[in-house]
Amino acid sequence: GVAMVSVLLVGQAWATLRERALRERTSMLRQIAEAKLPALATQAPESAAFRDAEAAVQALLAVGPGDPDARVWLARARAQRGDAAGARAELDRALAAHPQHADARLCQAWLLFEALDDRAGAIATLEAGAAPDAGTETGCCAQVLLAWVRSGPGEALETARRGLTHWPALPEAQRIVAGAILAANIPSDVRTHASWAVARLDEYLAAHPEDAAMFGHRAEIQLALDREEPAIADLERALRAGAAGIPAAERYVDFLRH
Q1: 245 and 215 in contact (C-beta within 8 Å)?
Q2: Full DSSP string of 8-59
Q3: What sections of 183-226 are H helices per DSSP?
Q4: How far apart are the C-alpha atoms of 59 and 61, rounded to whole Å?
Q5: What pTM was computed for the model?
Q6: Could you tell me if 56 and 72 are in contact, meaning their C-beta atoms sit under 8 angstroms apart?
Q7: 179, 219, 237, 244: which is closest to 39 by C-alpha?
Q8: Which residues neighbour 28 within 8 Å (Cβ) at sequence distance 6 or greater?
Q9: Which of 190, 251, 254, 246 is nearest to 222 (CA)?
């Protein structure tokens, strides 16, 4: 009996040590992944920084496959690579286990609307979650996106102007605003909207000068305001930083200069 108790105690102690080691390793891998995350939004998928960040997220999922945050991060990487189906699969897994995960729901809706042209699916995804709270970053983004999907870019911009007052440096919402500015059917008050959006992007880029893609967005909005020199400067900064998603930007800069 004593021997059996000793074996059980040793087994429990060993299991406790293993659990502690796994928690510590998971915590370490999460810290590494979080430190590298900005590259998934600011660098081109073929860049070393992007690949390194993606690998860090995959390493975190290897020890914690149920981590919904990591699923969302990997989905964003897949989307950046143009793999909409892969991104959706990751988000489906996150939402299946955590149906009220706000970031997963927002990313799923954006993916359905932007990459898969599924407006009804995007609305259903946003409406299935808890009512978005404009006092949070994710909630602010959700309100802006829902306004766009339901009523078009004009309403999204009005919603953004109301909601982003308290979140001037919010990457996801800034991307939605930039996309809305550049979308079709912009309201006639485009110069007012564009000027406001440039001011928000100025604030964002002052805090995040490494975000090459956002310089490209600001350049396009500058062109809508007939500001060629600032647009050229932004495109050149985006190119130097290795921005993705600016097709033929070098030729475009040459065209503007001549």
Answers
A1: no
A2: HHHHHHHHHHHHHHHHHHHHHHHHHHHHHTHHHHHS-TTSHHHHHHHHHHHH
A3: 190-207, 212-224
A4: 5
A5: 0.66
A6: no
A7: 244
A8: none
A9: 190
**Helices 84-97, 68-80: crossing angle, 10 deg rounding:** 170
**77/90 Cα distance (integer angstroms):** 10
C-alpha–C-alpha distance, residues 169 and 163, integer Å: 12
Helix (H, G, I), strand (E, B) or coil at 117: coil
Q: Which residues are within 8 A (CB) of 129 and not within 5 positions of it... i.e. 6 or more apart?
A: 99, 100, 102, 105, 142
Please report, as a single letter, which amino acid is at residue 130.
Answer: A
pLDDT tens digits, the chain, 258 residues: what are they?
556 556 566 667 666 767 787 788 888 998 999 899 878 876 778 888 899 999 999 999 999 999 999 999 999 999 888 899 999 999 999 999 999 898 899 889 988 988 888 999 999 998 887 777 766 767 777 887 888 888 876 677 777 767 655 544 455 555 555 555 544 334 445 566 677 778 777 877 887 787 777 787 788 778 777 888 888 888 888 877 665 444 444 545 555 555
Give the Cα separation of 125 and 197 in Å (integer): 27
Q: CA 139 to CA 91: how far, in whole Å?
A: 18
DSSP-based three-state secondary structure for 132: coil
Residue pair 212/237 in contact by the 8 Å Cβ criterion: yes
| Distance (Å, whole) CA 22 – CA 15 | 10
State both tokens at 201: 């992007």
